[in-house]
Amino acid sequence: MKEEIIAFAADHGGFELKNILLEHAKSKGFNILDLGTNSKDSVDYPDYAKKMADAIEDSKANIGVLVCGTGIGISISANRYSHIRAALVHDAFGARLSRQHNNANVIVFGGRTTGDEVAKDCLDVFLSTEFEGGRHQRRVSKMS
Ligand code: RB5
Predict the structure, then answer these.
(1) Per CATH, which fold does 5-143 belong to?
(2) Is 45 in the pocket of ligand 1 (CB under 6 A)?
(3) Most CB atoms within 10 A, among 15, 47, 59, 115?
(4) pLDDT tens for residues 20-55?
């Protein structure tokens, strides 16, 4: 098992991709925390962004994966919490730079906009890329 605990949360527009990514991470040996939702019943994405923010604040997870229909609503919601740096990602380049430059601790996808294989690739890159620090630390520090 790897040391990181990855939390996953999604609304009804993202739970299918959330579960695909959860299984993918589990198959790679990561510890998983599933914060729901797990059905097509309509829910409100800010509630799932809060579950993620709470899980990271309480050290139940170090890294998060959020999914809603577009990824937009849940990333806006997550970024309301000062300890969350949530990056809505559409390709591996963005996934890499979100770690190297932004020290993102949450990666966000649109379940209705990003294909399963692209999302898996982005997640792999996100999980294997380190923050570069240096001038990027100064910029990240200015966020708060
Ligand atoms: C839910 O229908 C949808 O609005 C939500 O999943 C997300 O796309 C919002 O940004």
Answers:
(1) Ribose 5-phosphate Isomerase B; Chain: A, (3.40.1400)
(2) yes
(3) 15
(4) 999 999 999 999 999 999 999 999 999 999 999 999
